Amino acid sequence: MLPYGRQSIDESDIEAVAEVLRGDWLTTGPAVQAFECEIGLLAGTSEPAVSVTSGTAALHTAYAGLGVGPGDEVITTPLTFFATATTAMWQGARIVFADISEDTGNLDPLAVKDAMTTRTAVVAGVDFAGHPIDATALSEVAHAGGALLLEDAAHSIAGVLDGEPVGSLADVTTFSFFPTKNLTTAEGGALVSSHVEILDRARDFKGIGYTRDPARLRSEADGPWYYEVQSLGLNYRLPDVLAALGSNQLKRIEGFKARRREIHHRYNEGLAGIDALRLPVTRAGADPMWHLYPLRIVDGRRRRLFDHLRSNGIGVQVNYLPVHVQPIFAELGWRQGQFPVAETYSEQEISLPMFPGLTDADVDRVVELVRDFVGT
């Protein structure tokens, strides 16, 4: 079965991990610090990243860093992995959904504007499939209402919009390093920001809420063992073993991006001119790091195409089921029909295989099977 996504691991990755295993630090050591600096540099921020144990942990830590709490509202998209919403709920926030732009699948700034209230604390956009959100418009809407912009860039590390790297476009940006993502630490994630106070709160939160920093202690230390718990937090610390893998992957990320671009272009060429299909777009100014190839079939035969490809050894996927119709949100009053653009997109979408190890022959085989199905 040809998977829809797969990690790219080589011998240099294995050696980087082995080197840490031979050393003194398996966690909370120099490999983590180095990785955080490298991610911050790639993201175009003035500060190192805060690394964590997963993309979900990155979102949770980001909301904590943003100060989200009970009484706040977070506006986000229905077309995402549900953690974009549920991690804000862990902080006590109320989730408000807004519809998407039909072309990119990303949060629609006009829909967000309509959903804003005096309680809106954060607007959380998602770089669906790797295409950056309309960060300029979303920032304007969020900031005009006294809110901050979070960019869930789980799909788009190393992406660029209008010459600026993903990570520098929003008040805070989160990444995921799951194996199918654009670089991997096996499990892991990170958040970046140019706001030092957000990063400080985030670092405290992911580090269980305690500190040994002499400058921050509220009582006089009676020895080098002294520490204080000053806030609630969780242990979301990424270990050195995984950070070393991430650092080595970063050495190849431009190659990963170039190959994903080539695959995206080959799909576009092979599937062009078919009325039943809608191909992903690239807006002017966007240089995406393509994580998915989100093909849409608009004639109602998505399930049949899915089964056809799976039965021929192509491990396609659907991204995503609309979040607002999940039982946890249906119980809060959200209903099918409230976000027609996102719902239609979800009903039509099928993710074709997309990872650097795909060969041109693999891509051509997928294209041929799709074209055979639609009768071209």
TrEMBL record:
Q: Which InterPro entries match?
A: DegT/StrS_aminotransferase, PyrdxlP-dep_Trfase, PyrdxlP-dep_Trfase_major, PyrdxlP-dep_Trfase_small
Keyword list, A-Z: Pyridoxal phosphate
Q: Which domain of life is it from?
A: Bacteria
Entry cofactors: pyridoxal 5'-phosphate
Carrying N6-(pyridoxal phosphate)lysine, the residues are K181
Q: Name one GO molecular function term.
A: transaminase activity
Q: Which residue spans adopt a coiled-coil conformation according to this UniProt entry? A: none
A GO BP term here is:
polysaccharide biosynthetic process
Catalytic machinery residues: K181
Recorded family membership: Belongs to the DegT/DnrJ/EryC1 family.
Q: What is this protein called?
A: UDP-4-amino-4, 6-dideoxy-N-acetyl-beta-L-altrosamine transaminase
Organism of derivation:
Flexivirga endophytica
